[in-house]
Amino acid sequence: MIQRQIKGRFAPSPSGRMHLGNLFSALLAWLSARSAGGDLVLRVEDLDPDRCRAEYAAQLADDLRWLGLDWDEGYERGGERGPYLQSLRTGSYAEAFRRLEARGLVYPCYCTRAERLAASAPHRSDGQSLYPGKCRDLTETERRRLEAEGRRPAWRVRVPDEDWAFTDGHMGRCTRNLLRDCGDFIIRRSDGVYAYQLAVAADDAAMGVTQVVRGRDLLDSTPRQLYLYRLLGLTPPEFFHVPLLTAPDGRRLSKRERDLDMGALRRRFTPAELTGLLAHLAGLLDRPEPVAARELAPHFSWDKVPRTDIAVEAV
Ligand code: GLU
Ligand code: ZN
């Protein structure tokens, strides 16, 4: 069998400064690819114009470089599979959307946010709401009436009542029911912006990505993305979901923790100190001692990385 050359990626959203959790995923994505002699892509996921800013993209590229995490292709480097800003790739999302639409796999959903929240039961595993399928079977007349009221629809993919099993490279075997756990999901918002699920699957396939390393919070998105790969006839990458970093009380670290964002971290640590800290959290070093990312690569193994969330004591 011919082994495909490994290609990993970073796919950050430029919606703020990166924080410790983003760096943790980025370091593992880098190590996973580099330890196998693979390449890396940096793709900037700036689809949401309300949340994303160009300065943040420049900043996150600078922050990755500061930490010693380089990439072969992508933002600020270019490459054959560009552009590497999602905001410049809407033509390819529109094309994927049209292919799904032509096969009757999507439908317009006219629900307002308030209606969706009122109608849905809280979802069991990730606290997100599950779409109850209100607009699934609207007639043409009903659609026209809603359009006449001035409502602009979001577009959803219709999912079957099917158990979907996949093997995560780090978390192992996972099974989700597409209908009960995911529900019909949005691929184009009512303002015309293509949704993350569609864009990420289209891009990873178009860029030839063979492995996706990202936070466990996106594990529940994986069956949705795998379903899109199937519908679009694309080859999926392998997925590795990494544990989340939490505060000592179990809360997830987020961009709100200003003392753990890259601005603060770069003032307090050298790149080697911060890498050592992340490597220690990842189970790659016994103690948080200074180290360069490239020194970790030869010893990297997924077996050393914890599978449950990691509480970060005072940093
Ligand atoms: N852009 C997403 C984020 O920053 C990550 C997408 C992915 O890794 O699939 O949360
Ligand atoms: Zn609806």
Automatic annotation (TrEMBL):
<protein>
    <recommendedName>
        <fullName>Glutamyl-Q tRNA(Asp) synthetase</fullName>
        <ecNumber>6.1.1.-</ecNumber>
    </recommendedName>
</protein>
<feature type="binding site">
    <location>
        <position position="131"/>
    </location>
    <ligand>
        <name>Zn(2+)</name>
    </ligand>
</feature>
<keyword id="KW-0648">Protein biosynthesis</keyword>
<feature type="binding site">
    <location>
        <position position="111"/>
    </location>
    <ligand>
        <name>Zn(2+)</name>
    </ligand>
</feature>
<feature type="binding site">
    <location>
        <position position="255"/>
    </location>
    <ligand>
        <name>ATP</name>
    </ligand>
</feature>
<feature type="binding site">
    <location>
        <position position="214"/>
    </location>
    <ligand>
        <name>L-glutamate</name>
    </ligand>
</feature>
<feature type="binding site">
    <location>
        <position position="45"/>
    </location>
    <ligand>
        <name>L-glutamate</name>
    </ligand>
</feature>
<dbReference type="InterPro" id="IPR049940">
    <property type="entry name" value="GluQ/Sye"/>
</dbReference>
<feature type="short sequence motif" description="'KMSKS' region">
    <location>
        <begin position="252"/>
        <end position="256"/>
    </location>
</feature>
<keyword id="KW-0030">Aminoacyl-tRNA synthetase</keyword>
<dbReference type="GO" id="GO:0008270">
    <property type="term" value="F:zinc ion binding"/>
</dbReference>
<dbReference type="InterPro" id="IPR000924">
    <property type="entry name" value="Glu/Gln-tRNA-synth"/>
</dbReference>
<comment type="similarity">
    <text>Belongs to the class-I aminoacyl-tRNA synthetase family. GluQ subfamily.</text>
</comment>
<feature type="binding site">
    <location>
        <position position="135"/>
    </location>
    <ligand>
        <name>Zn(2+)</name>
    </ligand>
</feature>
<dbReference type="GO" id="GO:0006400">
    <property type="term" value="P:tRNA modification"/>
</dbReference>
<keyword id="KW-0067">ATP-binding</keyword>
<dbReference type="GO" id="GO:0005524">
    <property type="term" value="F:ATP binding"/>
</dbReference>
<keyword id="KW-0479">Metal-binding</keyword>
<keyword id="KW-0862">Zinc</keyword>
<feature type="binding site">
    <location>
        <position position="109"/>
    </location>
    <ligand>
        <name>Zn(2+)</name>
    </ligand>
</feature>
<comment type="function">
    <text>Catalyzes the tRNA-independent activation of glutamate in presence of ATP and the subsequent transfer of glutamate onto a tRNA(Asp). Glutamate is transferred on the 2-amino-5-(4,5-dihydroxy-2-cyclopenten-1-yl) moiety of the queuosine in the wobble position of the QUC anticodon.</text>
</comment>
<dbReference type="InterPro" id="IPR001412">
    <property type="entry name" value="aa-tRNA-synth_I_CS"/>
</dbReference>
<feature type="binding site">
    <location>
        <position position="196"/>
    </location>
    <ligand>
        <name>L-glutamate</name>
    </ligand>
</feature>
<keyword id="KW-0547">Nucleotide-binding</keyword>
<dbReference type="Pfam" id="PF00749">
    <property type="entry name" value="tRNA-synt_1c"/>
</dbReference>
<dbReference type="GO" id="GO:0006424">
    <property type="term" value="P:glutamyl-tRNA aminoacylation"/>
</dbReference>
<feature type="binding site">
    <location>
        <begin position="9"/>
        <end position="13"/>
    </location>
    <ligand>
        <name>L-glutamate</name>
    </ligand>
</feature>
<feature type="domain" description="Glutamyl/glutaminyl-tRNA synthetase class Ib catalytic">
    <location>
        <begin position="6"/>
        <end position="259"/>
    </location>
</feature>
<dbReference type="GO" id="GO:0005829">
    <property type="term" value="C:cytosol"/>
</dbReference>
<dbReference type="InterPro" id="IPR014729">
    <property type="entry name" value="Rossmann-like_a/b/a_fold"/>
</dbReference>
<dbReference type="InterPro" id="IPR020058">
    <property type="entry name" value="Glu/Gln-tRNA-synth_Ib_cat-dom"/>
</dbReference>
<keyword id="KW-0436">Ligase</keyword>
<feature type="short sequence motif" description="'HIGH' region">
    <location>
        <begin position="12"/>
        <end position="22"/>
    </location>
</feature>
<dbReference type="InterPro" id="IPR022380">
    <property type="entry name" value="Glu-Q_tRNA(Asp)_Synthase"/>
</dbReference>
<dbReference type="GO" id="GO:0004818">
    <property type="term" value="F:glutamate-tRNA ligase activity"/>
</dbReference>
